Amino acid sequence: MFCGLLLVALSACEVAGSSLKSNLKTNTDQAVSLHVPPSPIDEQKENRKVDYIVVQKKDWLLSLWKDGRVLKTYSVMAMGANPVGPKVYEGDERTPEGQYYINDKHVSQNFQKFLGISYPSDKDILVAKRFGISPGGQVGIHGDRGGVSGFFQRSDKNWTDGCLALRNKDIEDIYSLVDVGTPILIKP
Q1: Residues 64-98: tens digit of each pLDDT
Q2: Is 155 in the same domain as 66?
Q3: Residue-wise over 152-188: b if at least 16 C-beta within 10 A, else e?
Q4: Are both 17 and 49 inside the same structural domain?
Q5: Looking at the structure, do residues 25 and 45 belong to the same domain, yes or no?
Q6: Which of 4, 6, 50, 91 gives a 20 to 30 Å CA spacing to 160?
Q7: What pTM did the predictor assign?
Q8: Where are any strands of DSSP class E within the chain?
């Protein structure tokens, strides 16, 4: 099985036996490729600690990837009050879906640390414009307020306006591993 996975992933492993090869062919027909968008700051890619971020909204997971492997996975603590579907306009309380990149990184007085997501994209702007509404902005990955206020936030899975909130210890870790320009894929 391990060799079969290497055959699919790397095409470098020779496997003996035609029945095994035919089984592998059947399994690879169902494979889904992951397209990670290029970073707008690709010249810094060699020094990057993390190659890209993948968010799986339905599973409430955020994972950091390096060299084609999951480096770390974190539970998303909160999203907007209406988390299903892509963000369309300001105030819809949805987290965007699609390919973006980290465009900002700063300490936040309200949310510990903040990693800005490059929402809205040109496509997002066109969709909102079609409806005559603002797409919004200032979407990111951040922690909670800490203290008593943070305690109450941690018990509510839908307190953001579309951002991805994580535990403060997790956002500290992610902040240290992610650079501006890192691609992020946000899946439904």
Answers
A1: 999 999 999 999 988 988 888 999 899 999 999 99
A2: yes
A3: ebbeeeebbbbbbbbbbebbebbbeebbbbbbbbbee
A4: no
A5: no
A6: 50
A7: 0.71
A8: 52-56, 61-66, 69-75, 98-108, 112-117, 140-142, 164-165, 183-187
